[in-house]
Design brief:
Largest sheet: 6 strands, mixed
Structural class: alpha/beta
CATH class of the largest domain: Alpha Beta
CATH topology of the largest domain: Rossmann fold
Helix content: 25-40%
Number of domains: 2
CATH architecture of the largest domain: 3-Layer(aba) Sandwich
CATH superfamily of the largest domain: P-loop containing nucleotide triphosphate hydrolases
Strand order of the largest sheet: 6-7-8-3-9-10
Number of strands: 14
Order of helices and strands: EEEHEEHEHHHEHEHEEHEEEHEH
Distance between the termini: 31 Å
Radius of gyration: 25 Å
């Protein structure tokens, strides 16, 4: 595996009030990946991004951007990072073209009309280049924010809740756009509390809760490692209690006794389903329907966030 484009070590943030917003976070981001940082509001997602982007000062730890320290090589680091913040902050009375070109100049990049034009084209903004910012829809403003963040040709793009307050159709457009950016070689880190966003797009997922990174893995591996399947057996007649003869299986009664629910590991050599169904038949327990449910990333996220943390 190549050297990570972003390496975070022991990053901690404690405010004067004593609140610990980040608790010694370690994380490597690989070149060209889409990494989703999942967590509830107040978990520390934005704090982590703001520290890496030089907006908030860390209490401890270091960040290496392409191998260089983000504080001692500040200019080098900032040139390689683009940030699309949660809030829509744009120059209300400026046209789109000026807004993006000005942003490029802030990073000391020479004027390059061809690059700006290509960028606006990629973001479906070229026909809006003369439009005053205040006259754009929320979704178009969000695209301009991405154009501003990409104006200086960064290698890493941070998207902080990129689809917050955006309708479903525009959200899917945004996902498509992110994939295109990755195809162009940009490394993307996005924070989100929309589970489906991470499930749809990310190569890897990190879960942060109460300032602590509690899980990092490839999306598929995380679901395999923690995902379970559930078999729901709709009974022909309700049961008042689970027969003692079913003690070998982890079953429970749901829906006022009309359904037996059995949780199993779909990757196990023996799931226990065949033997369970035989036992039900032996007991004369008839059923009228069967359905299975695979744990989603959302189920895993809820489980991770709500499981008790071991004291440090």
């Amino acid at each position: 595996m190549s050297d990570p484009i972003l390496s975070i070590r022991g990053l901690r943030k404690q405010y004067g009030t004593g609140v610990e917003a980040l608790k010694s976070v370690d994380l490597d981001i690989q070149r060209g990946e889409i990494f989703a940082l999942l967590g509830p509001n107040g978990a520390g997602k934005t704090t982590l991004i703001n520290i890496i982007c030089g907006i908030v000062t860390a209490s401890e730890g270091e960040v290496l951007v392409d191998g260089k320290n983000w504080q001692s090589d500040f200019r080098y680091a900032r040139e390689r990072i683009g940030l699309v913040p949660q809030e829509l902050t744009t120059e209300a009375f400026e046209p789109v073209w000026n807004t993006v070109s000005f942003s490029r100049g802030l990073f000391g990049k020479p004027r390059n009309d061809k690059y700006v034009e290509d960028l606006l084209k990629r973001l479906s903004l070229l026909d809006k280049r003369k439009t005053i910012m205040m006259h754009l829809s929320g979704g178009m403003k969000r695209r301009v924010m991405i154009a501003k963040a990409l104006s200086h040709e960064p290698h890493i793009l941070f998207l902080d809740e990129p689809t917050a307050g955006v309708d479903v159709e525009l959200r899917r457009d945004m996902w498509e756009l992110v994939r295109k950016l990755r195809a162009d070689g940009t490394t993307i880190i996005l924070t989100t509390h929309y589970i489906e966003e991470a499930e749809e797009m990310a190569d890897r997922v990190g879960v942060i809760s109460r300032g602590e990174l509690i899980a990092v893995d490839e999306k598929s591996a995380l679901m395999t490692r923690m995902g379970r399947k559930t078999l729901d057996i709709m009974l022909a007649e309700p049961l008042g209690a689970i027969p003692v003869e079913l003690g070998d299986w982890t079953v429970r009664l749901e829906d006022d006794g009309h359904m037996l629910r059995y949780e199993f590991d779909s990757h196990a050599e023996r799931t226990g389903i065949a033997s369970l169904m035989r036992r039900l038949s032996d007991l004369g327990i008839a059923y009228k329907d069967l359905s299975t449910h695979q744990s989603s990333l959302e189920d895993i996220f809820v489980e991770l966030v709500h499981q008790p943390r071991e004291p440090a």
